[in-house]
Structures are given as structure tokens and as C-alpha cells.
Amino acid sequence: MSVIGQIRGLPCAFMVDVKRAAVRERTTRTDSDVHATRVRRDRGTTAAQSLGSHPFVVLSLVVLAMGKPMARDLQLHEAREDIPNGFVLSGPAAPDTTLNLRIALAPSDTPGLHKALYDVSTPGSANYGRHLSKTEVEKFAAPKPESVDAVNAWLKENNIDARTISPAGDWMAFDVSVSKANELFSSNFSVYKHGGTGMETIRTLSYSIPASLKDHLDLVHPTISFPSPQPGLPARISSISPIVANVTSGDILSFCSGSVTPSCLQALYGIPTTNATQSSSQLAVTGLLDQFANKVDLETFLENFRTDIPSSTTFTFQAVDGGQNNQDPTQAGIEADLDIQYTVGLATGVPIVFISVGEETTDGVDGLLDIINFLLNESAPPHVLTTSYGANEGDFSRMLANSVCNAYAQLGARGTSILFSSGDGGVSGSQFNPKCIKNFIPTFPSGCPFITSVGATAGMNPEAAAFYSSGGFSNYFGVPPYQVDEHSAYLDALGHTYSDRYNASGRGFPDVSTQGTNFEIVVAGKIQSVQGTSCASPTFASIISLVNDKLVAKGRSPLGFLNPLLYSPAGKAAFTDITFGNNPGCLTVGFPAQSGWDPVTGLGTPVFSKLLTAAGL
Questions:
Q1: Which PANTHER family does the annotation name (predicted)?
Q2: Model confidence at 82, in pLDDT bands (50, 70, 90)?
């Protein structure tokens, strides 16, 4: 796929629930969050279907179910109206299939967590920069003792051995058979197959919990949240010959109109080339889906595009869920190489850590939640976390999205700036969706108000919105306080255009943008060009890391949760407003970029010196 016409619809931001088998181009497999000991694929009529076709038997089964003491106490907790596009029902899951389920207990004080997060993140607050300790955050997130007692009593009653899997004790996990799960939750776990990839997953369209647990148990997962089946590899534009990017400053921006390198970004945004000095100010890069960052590729990249620093400059590695970083050149990942090369190549001297999530994840979102719980358990989490993976918001249930979003709030309160690429499908989601003909599709986690969503631009003089840059308004999360004025101004200017296609009361995204087109990278020893919002997120993360380095050098706290600062008057003044372009999709031209914040490029692109001023430096 080296021809642009073949790849322009592919996203750079990964879909989080894409199974590793799809990445490896296998045609079928069951989700890693479901260890299927036996998935039946009978083409004929199953015994259950045969029984179900007889009215008398159906009535008898209903009477039996109603006679169970547990069933009388159950009430519907979550449900979805239909099967996601592309999936078809294959049949009931085998009763003895083992499911790895998780339950989220209700946190003791979510409003208090949100209040504390804004208190330490809003300029002018008396507590600005006084980030919370691990213990302080866990007090907000931990379930109340009565919730723990109620859930544990229910688990014990049903002979279930659960284990706590989050630092605050708000997530528990257990293994249970399909037959037991169907009984416990009055559910119907079935096998669903995706027609395009052949990937199979076991899900239910609804589940119930005991009425007595309503105020104690937030959700059971994975249940009604479906995986995103199609891989979202960065769009590979072309293979090119090695070039030397360090041209003179007078020629740099004209040179960059055809390809983007670290030198281009340094010239465009005023990013310094001098070494950072603070070893404690770490930048973390998320690695999912067996994407490995190759050190030899990084060395080649630096030899070509950062000749002013040692080509031996490298990164450290951490593993979650058995993660690895295979250094076989044939295993080099486009996404991982991109993210590492542009963080090491831009955040000069900042300690970079690649956190690889392995195949042992059972969080149902390919490690997206496990990596946050991993970082929450650290005594000193990184100051910046950049993630180039995402999904369509509707792939997550509302309760799951809310729970994951609150985990980001916990990490933000600890002082970590959390950045996500906004997606590459315009208004049709995290990748272009040709079946989207009406309602625009927001992405997740970009809709979460506690992270910073990064869109993409293209061109240099002037910059314009990249056509693929996902943006819009969340269906799950309301307008956050820091965005009220910008949100209102944009909708007033937009008028009634598309008013029936998006949620006018939803949190708008992205928040900011940077270049995301024609990025030169090295993969398996070859230089090639890629595009997508996956290019933009590590770029902005590098800029924030360099600001943090200067803050820490002066004995101050890192920026932490960014958005209240970015939307402040000083913060908005630190961006170049992007007023050209749009993000088409769903048979429309999408939202237009315009003066002020917009759901294509956010507040615009950064000016490093002005960000220093906004940070009080």
C-alpha cells in the first residue's frame, strides 16, 4: 500500500480492540479477553435453537427462570439496541467456554476526584500545580466499605473467587463459564463474527445485576462493548531515498512542504534543540497490539534527521501484561517506530520510556485500561503519556467509557499530561467509515474531558486542517467547564448546519493540533513517509515535555492535566489559529475550521515560546 490512493482512508490512530491476530494478518481468532476452550461453529441447527423453536418448551424455560431466587432479584443494568456494523450472530457461546470478566465497583467520591483534579490543574487556583499523591487519589477512587462487603458477599454466595486488579481496589476480575455468566447476569453470551476480518468475539447484548448491588457495582465487562476489528496502521504514503534534513533555516519551511522531519517541526513551532536537563521529567509512549519499537531503526532515523545529537540516543522499556519489544527487524512496527522516533527526535534529552502492553491483557480494550492502572500503581508516574490508539465512542458502553475516563482523571490528578490522537476518519470516526450516512461518529478517548485530544494539520504556509483529522462532539460526555465559551462560539457560528447529526451538548474535540502529514520515519531499515493524527500526538507530547523540563528545573511542578491551562486566555494565546480546511465524512464535508476553537484543529498549533509564557516561564 505505497500508493496514496490506496491508503488515504487508513487511519494512523490504532483501533484499541483490534486483535493482535488481525495485526498479524490471521483471518480468525476469538478475543484475547475470552479464553474460548470450545467455540461451536455448527452450520446446522443447534440443540438450543431446536428447543427454542417449540412454544411449549420456551414457556417452560421462562417459568423455570422466573422460579430461580436469583432471577427475581435481578434488574437490567446495561443493554445495547443492536449489533455493531460488520458483526453477525454466529450462535450461542458454548456453555463451558471460560470468560474473563471484570467488575468495576462504584468509587467512593467521583465528584470529589473531579473537583480536586480541576483545583490542581486550573491556573489561578490556590492549589495549582499541587498534584495529589498516590494515596490521596486512591481515597477518591476506592469503593466504600459497604460496596466491597456487598459485592464480596454476592461473589461468595455464587462460589466466585475474584481478585483485585487496580491500585484503588475499584476493579476486580474473575473467571466464569458462559453458562454460569448467563445465570448470574440473566444474559445471553453469544459468538459474534466480523465479516470483514473473520474475527470472533463473545458478547451479550444486555445483562442484569442484583437490585441490591445497584449502588455498589458500576459495570460488568466485557459484556456489551464490542471490539473494533479492523487494524488502523499508519497510512504509508511512499518509500523514499535517504535524505539529509538539516538544511539551512531559510530554506527549511519550503523544504518541509514536501516532507516533515524533526527539523521542520523545530522550525515551524520554535521547538528548542538544546538538551533537556531533568531526568525526573519522563515522557511515556504507549505500545499496543504487538507494535515493537526498533532501536536500530531509531539509530538510522537519528543519523538522517537529527545529526546534531548522538545516533546512540535511545529509550527505556517497561512491560505490562507480558509486553515485549522484539528487536527482529521484521517485527518493527510502523506505529511504534513513528512514536519513538519523533519523541526521541523532538524532545531532545528528555527520558523516553516505551511501555509495551502484551497479550496477557484481559481488560477487553487491548490494554488501554491495564496501562493506566499500571501507571497509577507507580510511585512516580511519567509527566507525559502519549497514545496513538483509539476507537469509536459507540464501541464502548457509556458506563465503560465513564469508568476509563475516571481512570484518566486519577492519573491527571497525579500530575501526568495524557494525550491521545483524535483519529483519522474525519467526522465518521477513528477511521473513514463508508457506511456512515447520517449521524457523525465521535471517537474515544478523545471525548473524555480529562485528556488532551490532538488533531492533525497539513501544509506549511499556511497550515490547514488535515482532511482525515477526526473531530466532533461526544455523545457520552458533556461540555467541560474549561470549554464552555469556545464550544458556544463555534456552534453559534455553525448555526443549524448538521444540527441533526451531532450532540450539541457534548464535549468538543480535538483540543489542539500539530502537523500530521508526510512524516519521514525509518521502518525495518527503510525510510518511508506516513500520515495521521498518530504523528501529531507524539509531536505535541514532545513539546509539553520540554516545557515540563524547564518547569522542573526551576523547582516547579509539571503541567499535569493540560486543558484548563490551554483554554485559558494565556493558553489560547500560545497557539496559531488554523482557519482553513475541514474533516469530511458521512457524505458531508464535515466541520469547517474557523477562527477560534473548532472540532477539526482545536485551538490550533503550538508556539513553544508562547507556551513557556503561558506556563509562567
A1: PEPTIDASE S53 DOMAIN-CONTAINING PROTEIN, PROTEASE S8 TRIPEPTIDYL PEPTIDASE I CLN2
A2: confident
Cα–chain-centroid distance for residue 81?
24
Confidence class of residue 461 from pLDDT cuts 50, 70 and 90? confident
Catalytic residue among 31, 78, 218, 339: 339
Q: 370 a known binding residue?
A: no
Is 577 one of the annotated binding-site residues?
A: yes
Average pLDDT, the chain: 86
**What span, in angstroms and rounded, lies between the C-alpha atoms of 375 and 355?**
10
Query: Residues 109-115: what's their mean pLDDT?
Result: 97
Q: Which CATH superfamily is domain 239-614 in?
A: Peptidase S8/S53 domain (3.40.50.200)
Do 228 and 392 form a contact (C-beta atoms < 8 A)?
A: yes
Grid coordinates belonging to 227: 471490539
DSSP reduced 3-state for 53: coil
For residue 336, how far is the Cα from the chain centroid?
15
Supply 445's cell numbers: 478517548
**Which candidate, 238, 236, 185, 183, places its Cα nearest to that of 213?**
185
Answer yes or no: 335 catalytic.
Answer: yes
Catalytic residue selected from 31, 138, 290, 335: 335
Q: Which residues contact 82 (CB under 8 A, 6 or more apart)?
A: 205
pLDDT digits (tens, 9 = 90+) for 587-604: 999 999 999 999 999 999
The C-alpha torsion from 429 through 430 and 431 to 436, rounded to 10°, is -10
426-455 pLDDT per residue, tens: 999 998 888 898 999 999 999 999 999 999
Output phi, psi for 121, to 5 deg: -115, -5
578 is in an annotated binding site: yes
Q: What is the pTM of this model?
A: 0.87
SS3 at position 232: coil
Rg (CA), the chain: 24
321 tagged catalytic = no
Distances (CA, A) of 466 to 156, 517, 535: 54, 8, 12
Q: Say which residue the cell 509564557 belongs to.
A: 613
Residue 290 labeled ligand binder: no
What are the start and end residues of each CATH 3.40.50.200 domain in the chain?
A: 239-614
pLDDT in tens, 254-292: 667 678 999 999 999 999 999 999 999 999 999 988 899
pLDDT at 38: 32
| Catalytic residue from among 121, 225, 281, 534 | 534
Q: Are the CB atoms for 219 and 399 separated by under 8 Å?
A: yes
Does the active-site annotation cover 359? no
